[in-house]
Amino acid sequence: MSEISDQNDLAELSFEAALAELEGVVAKLESGQVPLDESIALYERGQRLKAHCDARLAAAQAKIEQISLGADGQPQGVTSFGADG
């Protein structure tokens, strides 16, 4: 699989699908039954899957908003997750 093809493949994966594949990669590597060349390829794929999952989580976190309440307890507005306030 070429690097560009691999990047396109990853871009289409949901977080859940990427995480499931990453878990499969880890299980294969931990089994010790994979030849060295395949282990290296699996490790590299695992790194790319982890980066993809991290990016998906960061994007989701950026979308989370907190509702601000006024002194009367009524919703006053929203602020982005992690914003000072």
Q: Biggest sheet: strands side by side, in what order?
A: 1-2
Helical stretch tally: 3
N-to-C CA distance: 47 Å
Average pLDDT, rounded to a whole number, is: 85
Using the coordinates shown, work out and report the CATH topology.
Helix Hairpins
* pLDDT < 50 stretches: none
The assigned structural class equals alpha+beta
Helical amount among residues, as a percent range?
55-70%
Compute the number of structural domains.
Answer: 1
From the 3D coordinates, which CATH architecture would you assign? Orthogonal Bundle
Task: Output the CATH class name.
Answer: Mainly Alpha
Order of helices and strands: HHHEE
Describe this structure in words.
64% of the residues lie in helices and 13% in strands. It is of the alpha+beta class. α2 runs antiparallel to α3 (36-63). The chain is elongated and about 65 Å long. The protein starts with a helix and ends in a 5-residue tail after the last strand. 5% of the residues are buried. The mean pLDDT is 85.
Short description:
This protein is α+β, with helices and mostly antiparallel strands and 85 residues long. The protein has helices spanning 3-11, 15-31, 36-63; strands spanning 65-69, 75-80.
